[in-house]
Amino acid sequence: MDRNQAIGLSLIAVMFIIYTQFFFDEPKVDETTENNPGQTEQVITESNEQKASEEVSVIESEESDSVKQAIANSKYGAFAPSANGNEDFFTLENNLLEVKISSKGAIIKSVRLKDRETYLGEPLFLIDENSSKQSLITEIDGKTIDLTDLFFSSSSPKTVSVSEGSESEIKFESTGTSGKSIIVTYKLAHNQFTVDYDLDFKGVNTNGKSLVISWDNHTKRLEKQLEGVRVGSRPETTINYFRSDNEEFKSLDAASTDPQYDTLATPVKWFSMSQKYFSAALIADKGFTNTQFKTITPPESDTTTVKELYAKASIPLSDLNGENSSLKYYFGPNNYYVMEAVEGAPDFKENVRFGWKILAFINKGLVLPIFHFLERFTGNYGLIIFMLVLIIKLMLSPLTYKSYKSMAKMKVLNNLLKPETDQLKEKYGDDQAKVQQETMKLYQKMGVSPFAAMSGCIPMLLQMPILFALFNFFPYSVELRGESFLWANDLSTYDSIATLPFNIPFYGNHVSLFTLLMTLSTILMTYTNSQMNSAQMQGPMKTIQYFTPVIIMFVLNSFPAGLTYYYFLSNTITFGQQTLIKKFMINEEKIEQQIEENRKLKGGKKSKFQSKLEEAMKAQEAKAKKTKKK
């Protein structure tokens, strides 16, 4: 309390004493107390005390209001009248979003995605008043004001619904003295995930002033799996942004559990608080300056907050004044085509992770277009994945045929040459170089390239980039989220047919049936192919090839059911392709006849590569002999 307030209170107290002593009227005596002096005295005393209490309350209330008003005038200047009020809530909604806006600060309090649910089947709020806090700080008439402290009024209905093919808005106004006001307008169009934000100052000098936006978002848990790279939401939650100076998409390290920071003096066009399947973003027409980003990973014991995300950015007030929207929010899924359509946000679609550049190129150019095309015909994503496998297998069928043909040729050749190769091993013993050289001569006599077996592997290797691309496609495909198929309740997470009472290291405490089927089909494929190349697959390698599918089973047990279902279908269809090729397209008897004819013709002309390879083998043999002599 300062000196003026102390003097004021003293004067009020003196006036109160003078009033009670000289101007206070005694109450009239009731007939019931007229003949009872004691009762009369008691009534008079109680009445005097009540009056005195009421007068003190009035004085304290007046003093409190005056102090509050003085503080408001000092803090908010011309907008002191808007510092007090009652908080109301307004709803702006379309067919996709329900946006709740508070009259205090005219800020968004919560956003619900209408067509989505959490993993618990509850309404999906991307942000709410408990998880998301914003402040909008600027300077007005020399005073630093947080606009979220001011109360705004609105003549709009409490709920504004956007009709099909149209756009609706809610307008808020905070009125100050001297004709000054702040007008905030939210606009939402039908079938859109973006909310336009207009901020207009009337009668306020905005030259050289900026608005500092701070956003603290403790991202809510929306998914079943919290931990684990590619499968959990925590290692996939971060802040992404786009630098305007070099037109580069950047992001803070999502997988790290250490706090991540980034401070930029260069312009930033937009930033997003991105989870695995959903993002909340802010986009500026002319960009932000002096941006600061920070992410903090909570301890594993916190299973409600995925990650704490902080963003701070400045924007000139001159960029905000005007009829055209200068800021817009995005609240929606990490859907590639939806994000690509967001105007004024270059590379916004990069919020969808598709892996390294080569894998992202395959996913964007091949897998995603096919997937999106199939969505036009059915909403059953199990069938879509099945058709996706068929299409990709059909595209790769020439490679599959070539691979199987080479394997069949090598099988026949090895059967024919087995007696001779066994003799070579007995004759040259441990001299592997000589054995290889003589074996190549046998291949040459048969008219078969010694690299025929390798040529059978090349087509399979060419398919590997697609398999790795799909390894990055399915875990981040929001289209699969919440979609069920057969026993899998959600294709975006693992399917569990049994929960174990204990945890197996690297495997988990659940049993994924699609992963088991994928593993069994892989083992079957391995066995079938090994029968084709039994002569070339010897020793430990023959055993190791069966361990690989088991290792993959441990790795993929917690991966999305959509991925393991795809791999299972891929193995099954490949097995069917090989069966059809073997039965109807490959005649091993004809292959054997052709090889025998080549043997009679003493082989064909050597290629340059074969000649050079034979020379290299001879040089290796000569070097080995010199070593033995020493």
UniProtKB/TrEMBL annotation:
The way it spans or sits in the membrane comes to: Multi-pass membrane protein
Q: What InterPro entries would the database entry show?
A: Membr_insert_YidC (IPR019998), Membr_insert_YidC_N (IPR028053), YidC/ALB3/OXA1/COX18 (IPR001708), YidC/Oxa/ALB_C (IPR028055), YidC_ALB_C (IPR047196), YidC_periplasmic_sf (IPR038221)
Q: Does the keyword Protein transport apply?
A: yes
Which keywords, in A-to-Z order, does the entry hold? Answer: Cell membrane, Chaperone, Membrane, Protein transport, Transmembrane, Transmembrane helix, Transport
Q: Which GO terms describe its biological process?
A: protein insertion into membrane; protein transport
Domain named Membrane insertase YidC/Oxa/ALB C-terminal: residues: 381-583
Q: Which residues cross the membrane?
A: 6-24, 380-401, 451-474, 504-525, 546-568
Give the start-end ranges of region Disordered: 30-52
Subcellular compartments: Cell inner membrane; Cell membrane
Give one GO molecular function term.
Answer: membrane insertase activity
Output the Pfam families linked to this UniProt entry.
60KD_IMP, YidC_periplas
- Supply the CDD domains for this chain: 5TM_YidC_Alb3 (cd20070), EcYidC-like_peri (cd19961)
The entry's family comment says: Belongs to the OXA1/ALB3/YidC family. Type 1 subfamily.
The protein in question is named Membrane protein insertase YidC
The gene coding this protein: yidC
